[in-house]
Amino acid sequence: MLSTAVSAFSRRKMSTVDTAWLRMDSDSNLMMIVGVAMLDKPVGTDALKQALTARFLAFSRFRSRVVSDLAGSWWQEQQVDLDDHVVPARLASPKSRGGSNKAALQRMVGALSQQPLARDKPLWQMHLVDNCVGEDGRVRQALIVRIHHCIADGVALVGVFMSMFGSDIGVAPAQPSPHAVVAAEENPWAQILMPMTLTSVKAIDLSSTLFIKSMCLFSEMDKLGGKIAGLAQAAGQLAVDAVKLTTMGEDTPTRLKGQPNGKKHVAWSEPLPLAEVKAVGKAFGCSINDVLMASVAGALRAYLRAKGDAVGADCEVRVMVPVNLRKASRQQRLGNAFGLVPLVLPVGLEDPVARLLEVRRRMDDLKGGYTALVAMSVLGVLGAAPKPVQNDIQNYFARKATAVMSNVPGPQAPLYLAGSQLDQVMFWVPQSGDIGVGVSILSYNGGVQFGIVTDDALVTDPDNVIKRFAPEFEKLVMLALMGEW
Questions:
Q1: Cα–Cα dist 317/257, whole Å
Q2: Smallest Cα–Cα separation from 422: which of 104, 14, 41, 16?
Q3: For residue 334, which of 161, 167, 166 has the smallest C-alpha distance?
Q4: Which reaction does it catalyse (predicted)?
Q5: C-alpha angle 421/427/432, rounded to 5°?
Q6: Backbone angles phi, psi at 341, to 5 degrees
Q7: Can you give the pLDDT at residue 243?
Q8: Are 76 and 64 spatial neighbours (Cβ–Cβ below 8 Å)?
Q9: Which residue in 264, 301, 380, 425 could disulfide with 208, CB within 3.0 to 4.6 Å?
Q10: Degrees, nearest 5: CA angle 130-134-136
């Protein structure tokens, strides 16, 4: 048994933004970020625990449970027993020779995505799964990671997770600063943000608390419109910008929208060459992000049509995209420092090039906007508001969208842990309210992978969606080559 002891257990107040994520847990959607890392050689549990002790537990939030009282929620440090957080497991071998048990691994990830984390312990857990046979026939080890969103957002957590790995097979990575998070090499959404500093993010948390303390309107308002209006009065111009978000109409009703039941299904693709994605973007004068988003739109269109659904030319699917609001720096803390940008995917457009160019146009329209900052401010206000108010407003926004979609860049060189190379890595951010679909894109070591998590009430066959991403991208590759001729 390996444990860590802290000499003096500290207690720190949780920010209102982090509190908002803590309180978003529901029976249908748990606020956990779930990741899967595929290692080319087995790593022992002791080696993993040593890496966690040296680098993961350097951050106090991974040593702290959450406690709540009338004054709010707090981070309470405690002794950590890593036997509670590292769980060994093993998959059964494929029934047929040369077969794969990837489906069994995906089912395990789906089941863990709906299993709550123990509230009497720090809100994270890892499963080290042996005998994972991939579609290429190779046997790997999987590391399934579950971390509650109140600890940090996806960008911060990917940085912390990657800090466990080294760039040399025989050399362990240096121990990070307790407040350092490895910055992503390239933020695909940076162009649509104004420059942000950590000071600005902290100001959101402070102002959100003051806004709520100065108003009693929420308890007297019967309708959401009144609650939003009251929010605007209290929060000033920033919340007036938030009100503009409420003017969004609902996107096209499809089988991807509905009431989730909490049972999750997960699937992910094999990596696509990142160099090809860059080449396609260059051929059409688009960004890498434009190409990836257009491929997602095409895959969703192909899936709906394969199910026999009518997909009109005006069919649009709105995805809420988390956008990092951290200034590029290696000195960042954990926590949530992002907003949400609503991107409407032109799923109804049949022509792949027309679809790509329309995605580019819509992305250009978002550049320079303050939507992400406003959305984060709303989260801060909601975290300080009564929970019923948070639920009402959160569900109101959720009805405007079909999915949550994250795009996080990872290191472009191979990483190693205890002599084992990290072959692939994928993650999923949670869906709030009645949203039942989450799409993730992550690039690593020259490849880019798509992942999807779906709710059983909406989509029971996420593999049927995932397998359509690569063909949609290949259409753009082919058309780009034809254009060069």
A1: 10
A2: 41
A3: 161
A4: an acyl-CoA + a 1,2-diacyl-sn-glycerol = a triacyl-sn-glycerol + CoA
A5: 165
A6: -110, 125
A7: 52
A8: yes
A9: 380
A10: 140
Which amino acid, 325?
A: L
CA distances (Å), origin 160, targets 178, 372, 454: 10, 23, 26
* pLDDT score of 320: 83
Residue 156's pLDDT is what?
Answer: 79
Cα–Cα–Cα angle for 320, 322, 323, rounded to 5 degrees: 130
Rg of the chain, C-alpha, whole Å: 22
How far lies 10's CA from each of 61, 63, 77, 249, 316, in Å? 11, 10, 5, 46, 49
Nearest 5°: phi and psi at 455? -90, 145
Supply angle C-alpha 297, 299, 304, rounded to 5.
95
Please choose, from the candidates 440, 332, 334, 437, the residue with its C-alpha nearest in 3D space to the C-alpha of residue 34: 440
Q: Estimate to the nearest angstrom the gap between the alpha carbon of 204 and the chain centroid.
A: 21
Cα separation, 294 vs 350, whole angstroms: 11
Encode the chain in three state secondary structure: CCEECCCCCCEEECCHHHHHHHCCCCCCCCCEEEEEEEECCCCCHHHHHHHHHHHHCCCHHHHEEEEEECCEEEEEECCEEHHHCEEEEECCCCCCCCCCCHHHHHHHHHHHHCCCCCCCCCCEEEEEEEEEECCCCCEEEEEEEEEECCCECHHHHHHHHHCCCECECCECCCCCCCCCCCCCCCCCCHHHCCCCCHHHHHHHHHHHHHHHHCCCHHHHCCCHHHHHHHHHHHHCHHHHHHHHHCCCCCCCCCCCCCCCCCCEEEEECCCEEHHHHHHHHHHHCCCHHHHHHHHHHHHHHHHHHHCCCCCCCCCCEEEEEEEECCCCCCCCCCECCEEEEEEEECCCCCCHHHHHHHHHHHHHHHCCCCHHHHHHHHHHHHHHCCHHHHHHHHHHHHCCCCEEEEEEECCCCCCEECCEEEEEEEEECCCCCCCCEEEEEEEECCEEEEEEEEECCCCCCHHHHHCCHHHHHHHHHHHHHHHHC
CATH code of domain 3-162: 3.30.559.10
Closest CA to 311 of 354, 259, 357, 252: 252
Beta bridge partners of 420: 417
CA distance linking residue 52 with residue 43, whole number of Å: 13
pLDDT at residue number 35? 92
Q: What is the largest CA-CA distance in the chain?
A: 69
Residue 343: per-residue pLDDT: 85
> CA–CA separation, 187 vs 323, rounded Å?
9
The predicted-structure confidence for 391-425, as pLDDT tens digits, reads as follows: 566 566 667 789 988 888 888 889 999 889 999 99
Closest-CA residue to 141 (of 36, 49, 265) = 36
The residues of the chain scoring below 70 in pLDDT are 1-8, 168-248, 324-333, 336-339, 367-398, 484-485
